[in-house]
Design goal:
Blueprint: H1 3-29, H2 38-46, H3 88-92, H4 120-134, H5 141-153, H6 165-175, H7 199-210, H8 216-227, H9 231-249, H10 253-267, H11 287-301, H12 307-317, H13 322-336, H14 343-347, H15 352-366
Length: 377
Amino acid sequence: MNQMAATSATLEDRLRGALWSFMAGDALASPTHWYYGGQYQVIQEYGKEITDYTKPNHKLAGSILNKSDLNGGGRRGYGGSNNSKKTIIGDVINHGKQDLWSPKKSIHYHATLAKGENTLEVQIARVLMKSIVTNDGNFNADHFRDAYVKFMTTPGSHNDTYASTCHRMFFANLVHKGLPAKDCPDNDSHNVDVIDSLILPTIVALAGSCQRNPDIGSMSAACVAVTRRSSISEQIASQWASVVHSSLHDNDEPSFQTALNTFSKQTIRRLPNPRASDASTLCACYLSQSLPAMMDLIAKYLPENNPWFGLLANANVGGENVHRGSVIGAILGARASDANLPVQLKEGLYHHQEIAAEIDAFVKAVLPKEGEKKEEL
């Protein structure tokens, strides 16, 4: 095998590892999402620590679904401030889930998901992957926006209970204000500049990195802007793209560690702490809390060369661990590579057969074709 073929095979192996672990990090953590009681609460609710994919409980004491606005962002009460007969949650998106947000109930954020089933944010990431495939391996904001709107407004397109503030605000602007889809991204100055803003850019960065596209930073930022208005999230997504690129291309650990450390110093003003306790990474969704925790977990579990351990640890921490799980998974999976993923990581996913086909199509679309030369970053 010549050197070019070996390099391509290694790149594909890392890409597949990243994608599978991205899916797994989300699904493993969904049962304990926003469990701020940490490991004690996890064991109390499920009888033991999370050791595999687990169906989320139906009820959750302290759930804020019953305080969340069905017609926009934040906690403006059941039904929100808009008196329209059509509610965003239930009628426009998350069809049939409105009753689960009732102020008389205390429902788990992912109560309707099956064991190993992905949350809404990763389902949207799968829509993004298909959009990239349709566009010959490239990110196209207009195409993805159309696909996003169609997916979200189609009954039965996903099974999750919860939809984050950015999505509720987007569709409130689309339906209640009649704005063009391009003008619908919004920000409530509280719940939008958060860790889930890195989910979609990670997919764009994986695609762009495979093609060695010099614009992966700006493309990742543009991806953020499709669903939310957040300059800080765009900035961080642009910087994050370099870590994603390094996770795929740098075969030596010192080079990857340099990329990781550079991002860490840019965003949290310190180096990742590989000796941090798992419990110390319990945090909320806000970037000021979630980025340090994310960096520490990556640094701690990178030497394992098996993302399963880090993703289980993340699941058992609780707090905002679902979206962080996907982002961590992409990096740990890329560094471990597909060959080192345990069987249960893939086969335990609820839609593993569909996901396998989607990953195959994505890999084929984004990897450079034989004889094709991409501009170096």
